[in-house]
Amino acid sequence: MLKAVTLGLLMVLATVTFSHALTIKGVDLPDSLTVGDETLVLNGAGVRVKKIAGLIKKDLYVAGLYLKNKSADAQQIVDADETMMLRIQIVSSLLTAERFKEATLTGFAESTKGNTAPIQKEIDLFLNAFSDKIKEGDLFEIVYTKEVGVQVFKNGAKESTVTIPGMPLKKALFGIWLGERSEDALKKLAQALLGEHAAK
Question: Per the domain annotation, does 7 fall within a domain?
Fold first, then answer.
């Protein structure tokens, strides 16, 4: 049954509309898309900015959060057992696979308040989805659905690179982008994803 549901999801993942709600750093973000038979709407979007050598600011990726219904409540989104997507488009060659994985590990540590042990196996599986070379222009769609779990799709592929069932990873994962973070740039990105502002 799970296999059938998964295959059905893959066939219709991320069918985007032709209108764009936002264009950020040259990246067009559709105002809605579909996962399975569900329509998701753009909740908010922003840019991941990183200071290089503590001085120069560089844009690394543009992220958009898609939900069934718009919400500005970060914890409610993290806890929701419903379909959602984080769409990430790389806009800099500075973001390598190694750096992305390192930053994501830090994110898991912060989103779980240092308690990654219960989901370490799931974290390792998720990070494996980003082992291949990452280049400017790459698009990652991180999707959670109740029936399937977390899946990662790269550059519009119909098959996910990983499927991880259950809520524990989902909550920690979306907490990376929506939870309390120590870095100011990540706090601003979270605000953008919640619809509070977006850098264009």
Answer: yes
